[in-house]
Write a structure and sequence with these properties.
Length: about 600
């Protein structure tokens, strides 16, 4: 086996060892990929209980006043700093302990109320929203609540609830989505303590963190497979330093940087969970953390729609408001429909998390993928509708007497969402692996052992495959136009399951390398999941006014996208594009890079 082959095998082994192998609770999306229609998992739409909503209303109202009077979002973007008085105000509101139980000094709010707060903050200042989200969605409190001992919870959770800022340190300069190459090392020292050495990159809140969750290797670096363990590290620990604060396209106020650990000593009590269980802890933490991103996306999309609706109604061109012209009107209609879908997914998955009756690893990943992509389409359209004013900063608009609509900042801040907590490409591979899991088990194979058990597979598929050609969705108390879309989702689920099976037959073990085919299958599942969420919410007695119109438009557009995805699964140019890409990488077209100036060349080697 080549070195590249051994590296790939090791990466697969690490990933497979860390993933949750069993499905102890039902999953709507997992069943969707098997062609099994389970509407009871999403119908009726889970409305927030009155007492829980009231608890959220009180803190949302306080937060709204605080954001309006105390948080200068344009100033934070300009000065690259969240002022101390803003942090103190957030602490006073208890917003560093939103999901921490009251017994530890937190607010103890539900996932729905947490996301209501994040949506509100994100609509105004994305830097502040990411500060809060990184602190408690993936920071120390979340893994501590899942894996911490009673002593650890009593020691750290009150500090976090009172406003000690936390961070999550997994990524390294040479390690992105493949943790099998992790190099940060923790070695045993006297009295059961550990010494941690290494570097962590792109750590949100890292430069100002009071506490960090750090993933480090705890076995010999020469061992074939890394043993990754999670530790709690104090932000002021000797040997821990911020080498560089990163500056990004957006999120200018976010403290994010390259951290160096130089023999940082931590006690034995700082180990979270079991030794070697760090990667599983990290993946579960990210699964929960992803639930916040749809809410943040919805906040930014609401702000974009508000800007565009006002501008398109007031701005006159050729004798009519620009919003009355078809080219602009179509963009605004799509914005509204996709926003309705994003909100539907946000509140559906939030309620699923609160109820704890379903396995939401796929639902959370699907919501993150769909909502971040929809956000980018929306802010891009928003800049286009605003034209030159969309490209101009709010400060510049204010300086010449126009309303300081922050469309330019919204676009810059939005772009990171398709990257953080799993890029869209990695999300598609993660979802594809989980979606394939029932099929792999039916065929008696795994990514590490791709040889199928033909007799076992044949026995399963002989009965399963014919059943994917018939079924009945039920009316689920929807109006006639929406029932038509619901029947499409049910049929689409069965067709998607067949498509997945056909690709397994065609490509065998090689399917895991056909990333574009897997992406189309996943995107098809995401569209169907979004349609189901939209239809469930639109048909709910508590649904918002006009929901049916938006649901109908979204489903119409989703069906067109699904037709394109389905055709491309079977008929595409992927092999030609791949061969061309290899030619480009091999320098076959040097003239494509002529007549440019690249001042960055030779400045530093790639890491």
């Amino acid at each position: 086996m080549t070195e590249a082959g051994r590296t790939e095998k090791r990466s697969l082994e690490v990933a497979e060892a860390a993933r949750e192998a069993e499905w102890r609770q039902p999953s709507f999306v997992s069943e969707l990929f098997m062609g099994r229609w389970r509407p009871q998992l999403v119908f009726p739409f889970p409305e927030q209980e009155a007492a829980d909503r009231q608890a959220g209303d009180e803190i949302v109202a306080k937060l709204r006043r605080f954001l309006t009077t105390e948080v200068d979002a344009d100033g934070i973007d300009r000065e690259r700093e969240i002022p101390p008085q803003v942090l103190d105000g957030l602490r006073a509101l208890g917003l560093f302990g939103i999901k921490i139980a009251p017994q530890y000094g937190g607010l103890g709010l539900s996932q729905i109320n947490y996301n209501r707060l994040i949506q509100l903050v994100a609509s105004h200042c994305a830097s502040t929203a990411v500060l809060l989200s990184a602190h408690q969605s993936i920071g120390v409190s979340q893994p501590l609540q899942m894996y911490g001992t009673a002593e650890q919870k009593q020691t750290y959770l009150p500090r976090l609830a009172q406003g000690a800022i936390s961070a999550f340190a997994l990524t390294e300069p040479g390690v992105g989505s493949d943790p099998s190459s992790l190099t940060t090392l923790a070695v045993p020292a006297e009295n059961g303590s550990w010494l941690i050495s290494g570097e962590k990159l792109w750590i949100s809140n890292g430069p100002v963190a009071d506490l960090l969750i750090v993933m480090a290797r705890t076995n010999d670096p020469r061992d074939e497979r890394p043993e990754i363990t999670a530790f709690i590290v104090e932000g002021d620990a000797p040997g821990l330093s911020t080498v560089h604060r990163c500056d990004f396209m957006g999120l200018k106020g976010l403290q994010n940087g390259l951290l160096r650990f130089d023999q940082v000593r931590v006690p034995a009590t700082a180990l979270v969970g079991e030794r070697g269980g760090g990667l599983r802890l990290a993946l579960r933490t990210l699964n929960i953390g992803r639930l916040t991103l749809p809410a943040a996306c919805g906040g930014a999309m609401k702000q974009t729609l508000t800007i565009c609706r006002q501008w398109a109604s007031e701005r006159q061109q050729w004798g009519a408001p620009v919003g009355h012209h078809e080219a602009v009107a179509s963009k605004i209609a799509t914005m509204a429909a996709e926003l309705f879908a994003v909100e539907s997914l946000t509140w559906l998955t939030s309620a699923m998390a609160d109820r704890g009756e379903t396995d939401i690893r796929l639902e959370a990943a699907m919501a993150k993928l769909f909502c971040t992509e929809a956000l980018w389409r929306t802010v891009d359209a928003g800049v286009q509708i605003r034209g030159g004013r969309g490209y101009e900063t709010a400060d510049s608009l204010r300086g010449r007497g126009e309303a300081p609509m922050p469309m330019e900042r919204l676009l810059r801040d939005a772009r990171i969402n398709q990257i953080i907590e799993g890029t869209s490409e990695i999300m598609r591979l993660f979802i594809a692996r989980e979606a394939l899991d029932p099929h792999l088990k039916a065929a008696g194979v795994s990514p590490l052992s791709p040889r199928p058990q033909l007799r076992k597979g044949a026995a399963f598929y002989f009965g399963w495959y014919p059943r994917t050609f018939w079924g009945r969705s039920g009316d689920e108390q929807l109006s006639a136009p929406l029932r038509r879309h619901l029947r499409f989702v049910e049929r689409g689920s069965r067709r998607l399951a067949r498509d997945l099976f056909h690709m397994m037959l065609r490509h065998g073990a090689g399917l895991q390398k056909r990333q574009l085919i897997l992406a189309r299958l996943v995107d098809s599942g995401a569209e169907l999941f979004a349609m189901a969420a939209v239809l469930s919410r639109a048909g709910s007695p508590g649904g918002p006014a006009g929901a049916e119109k938006l649901a109908d438009l979204f489903c119409r557009q989703a069906r067109r996208r699904l037709q394109i995805l389905h055709r491309a699964i079977y008929c595409n140019d992927d092999p030609v594009a791949y061969r061309t890409a290899r030619d480009v990488l091999d320098g076959a077209f040097p003239w494509l890079e002529e007549n440019i100036v690249s001042s960055w060349k030779g400045s530093s080697p790639p890491r």
